[in-house]
Amino acid sequence: MAYDKEFVGGLEWLWGEGFLSPGGCEEISEILRGSSIKGKKVLDMGCGIGGITHLLVTEHKAQEVVGIDVAEALIERARIDTQAAGLAEQIKYRLAEPGPLDFDDAEFDVVFTKDVIVHIQDKCSIFEELHRVLRRGGLLVGSDWLGSDNTNQSELVRAWLDFCELDFHFHTAAQLQRLLTGIGFDSVKTRDRNSWYCNAVRAEIDKVSGESRSKFVKNFGEEMADFRLQSSTLKMKVVDAGELRPTNFSAVKN
Question: What architecture is domain 1-144?
């Protein structure tokens, strides 16, 4: 997936300035419900253009955040926006390469990640790395696009992913719990968000159809509007079938 300026702009139209995944500031508060990152050093894995990274500092009072992403264009945009927001003393960014994370053992109090792990096939290796960079007693918290037992074989899911040219790798909430426990995390908790996301996808469709469509077309063109509408319509079928299950999770390194 190429995160060019037009593509990123379309995602921000759907999900809010600075966001490349759904839910905005309200969903970040939901993910962090029951957890505190105040005064903590946080790793934001898959930081995108930094909208969430800012909230971790400004709304949730993290002392320091390091954001990482594999897309250089996103990191550069995040740095520009962070400098403009006056947050460069508290937030730093690094371009990440596939493989082990370039951080010391026990470097962070908290690892935060939102809707990123679905892109990664070797989930065990990345969660082992997140466990390694956390201090003992540190918090892993975030969300991921999980699935049902049928998701990886679903024709509905395949039609959506093929249309969007997405390479997603789904696991279930039960598989996530077993994986994190086996790696050495305690107090593993998950909260299914499929019901909430049904409404969120309907809102996406409204933004690229009906009265809102002309505004989207003015900014991004007919082709992008058609792509976004078809993408969200196909995704709506997957969510309604229960085969895409956004899930919030948390765990503690023992």
Answer: 3-Layer(aba) Sandwich (3.40)
Token pair 């918090």: residue = 139
Q: Where are the domains of the chain?
A: 1-144, 145-243
Name the burial class of residue 128, with classes exposed (0-12), middle (13-18) and buried (19+) by CB atoms within 10 angstroms of its CB: middle
Same-fold call for 1-144 versus 145-243:
yes
For strands 245-253 and 185-192, give the pairing. Answer: antiparallel
Question: From 3.10.450.50, 3.30.43.10, 2.60.40.10, 3.40.50.150, which CATH number describes the 145-243 domain?
Answer: 3.40.50.150
**pLDDT, one tens digit for every residue, the chain (254 residues):** 567 888 899 899 999 999 999 999 999 999 999 999 999 999 999 999 999 999 999 999 999 999 999 999 999 999 999 999 999 999 999 999 888 999 999 999 999 999 999 999 999 999 999 999 999 999 999 999 999 999 999 999 999 999 999 999 999 999 999 999 999 999 999 999 999 999 999 999 998 998 889 999 999 999 999 999 999 999 999 999 999 999 999 999 98
**CA-CA distance, 164 to 234, in Å (whole number)?**
10
Q: What is the DSSP letter of 78?
A: H
**pTM of the shown model:** 0.95
CB neighbours of 67 closer than 8 A, spacing ≥ 6? 44, 47, 50, 53, 75, 78, 91, 92, 93, 94
From the list 127, 139, 143, 157, the residue with the least C-alpha distance to 21 is: 143
